[in-house]
Each structure stands twice: as structure tokens, then as C-alpha cells.
Amino acid sequence: MATIVLKKKKLTFLENLYIFEIFKGLMITLRHLLKNIVAPSKMMTFEYPEQKKPIDHIHRSEHRLMLREDNSIRCTACMLCATACPALCIHIEAAEGDIPEKEKYPQKFTIDLLRCVYCGYCVEACPCDAIRMDTGKLVSSAYGREDFIKDINYLKNNHPTGKSPISQGIY
Fold this sequence. Notes:
The chain has a domain at 64-156: Alpha-Beta Plaits (2-Layer Sandwich), CATH 3.30.70.3270. It has five helices and five strands; from the N terminus they run ααβαββαββα. The longest helix is centred in the N-terminal third of the chain and has 20 residues, at 19-38. By secondary structure, the chain is of the alpha+beta class. The chain has helices at residues 13-17, 19-38, 80-84, 121-125, 152-156; strands at residues 64-65, 90-96, 104-112, 131-132, 149-150. Strands 2-3-5 form a three-stranded antiparallel sheet.
């Protein structure tokens, strides 16, 4: 097997100084600067506290539990969301229901937001549309780890403005 030896082209003195490449880079930077000065609405940066970045409607944010028309939690404690969760951050304790339509309900329902990876598998796994991730709330800050463990009362009342807490699900 023969090998082919490629000879490198010898650079001239001006090419070794990289003056033309530096000038090209400066021209690209100047072009972007002028574009941002002429049309600031098309800039990619946001002045955060004054100007918030718009959130897409498909963005997965904090969890919320959906309610029925009688303001009871839609969750039937089937444990599918806790089983589907890859981070194991959902913990449910089931209790027996009083009415025959609702055999079980979650007595305790907690989500550890520090462990959650916001994948949305819990929403996809839920057969009765009991959990959603459409609040629009980004991860908040807190002083202690226990503040990131959200219980059933928080999740039941964590509804964004303009969205109904009542689910139009199957049952």
C-alpha cells in the first residue's frame, strides 16, 4: 500500500501575520453591531428584570394537579406517574375513597422539584389528565431544600392565571 505525502503550501509573510483574517473578523463583528443598532427588536439578548423572555406554550414548567367539577382532585392514585418518573421524585400515598365512583384518592402527593428533570413523562403517563406542567412558572429560589418539596395543597392551588383548574378529561 502506498501512502501519498501531501506537501503544505508555504505561507507568505502577509499570510503569516493573519492581518486579513483579523480584518474579516472585525468586519463580521461590526456588521452584527450595526444590525443590532438598526433593528434592536431582532436582538437575541433580553434585559431580564425589565424584559422577560416569552415562554412557548409547549414549555414544561411547574406541576399542577387538575380538579373535577366538584373541586376534588382528579387523581385516582394509580401510581402511573410515579412509575414513569425516571428521577423518582413523585411520592403518592393512596387512601380508600368514600364514594363508589372514586375508589382511591391520593392522601399524600409530593413532588421533589430538586430531583425532577422536567421530562413530562408523568403527564404523558397519567390516564385521567390529573397532572399537568403548564403553569408557566419557572423554577423558583428558596433558602432550604424542604421548600422545593411541593405537597398536595400547593399542587392543587398552583394554577396559572387565565387557565381553568377544572380538567375536561374523560372522567
